[in-house]
What does this fold into?
Amino acid sequence: MPNKDQIEQILFEVIKELNEELPFDQHIDVQLESPLFGQSGKLDSLGLVSLIVRAEEKIQDQLGISITIADERAMSQTKSPFTTIRNLSEYISVLVIENEKD
Amino acid sequence: MKKTDTKVMIITGTSKGIGRHLAEYYVDQGLHVIGCSRSKTDFYSANYRHFILDVFDEKAVRAMFTEIRRDYGKLDITINNAGVASMNHSILTPIDTVRNIFETNVVGTFLVSRESAKLMRYVNYGRIINFATGAVPLKLEGEAAYASSKAAIVQLTQILSKELAEFKITVNAVGPPAIKTDLIRSVPKQKLDDFLKRHAIKRYGDFSDVTNLINFFIKPESEMVTGQVVYLGGVFG
It folds into this structure.
């Protein structure tokens, strides 16, 4: 079972890759509380798509687990999992645990 | 993971009919073709790989895309050909038939397109081709469920063309002519004759009519062609 640190590290790698493509003023700090998407986030909807797709691929490649991050719950939660790296990491941990149970 | 220079294409519904023909045709053209259907295939080629799955089964479809990403590193073209039909009066159509039609035709096309777009980001080029039907503009009696599912595909084609333009992916649809395949085997001759009468060109189509249009959509020069639905044979409302 992958631990929380592994998922956070994967997300940090994804953010570093995204930063290479984003203009400098839109770079996201590689730390847990960095805002991603929403009121204070720097990502637009296309950036969010790139983030999610890359994260799904890396989780598949590094942990061998296939998850769909943008699932029904993620899209309908009052507290969006896409606001900060920490929230996203916590949400992915839940998905990973559920995947293991299946 | 090394990206292949050869174009990689997915075709759904390759066990028979148009899908089978397209698989053989594009393998002959030198592409890597990945096909899928609910049943086994007897088509073998070094450049053809077959998956047995339902196109609306999210887990199975995602597993197929994971393998494509690992083995080819990219995807260039997707042809959402898989489809089921039921020609019947709406009063005589079981709800399970309606569900089956919508799952394969609409959910399947949506799911395969969604996963395709994720992989096409790698190539800065992408072509998604969906399948519509002349029964949509003609609003044919006896095809309420089938034509409604294909109308959804027309809408999906046009909205995806907008959403995916940023990724240089075009999305278009083919309205194939009546071709003598399994899909129309059970349709009475009189009904098919009536259908043909409503075309500008009143003859059965050939597989080559379909490949000709798909070849046009997938050309690199067709990067401005998106959100279009072409009804072969000339069908209008």
About this structure: Chain A has one domain: 4-26+36-101. The longest helix of chain A spans residues 45-63. The interface with chain B takes residues 46, 50, 53, 56-57, 60, 66, 68 of chain A (CB under 8 Å).
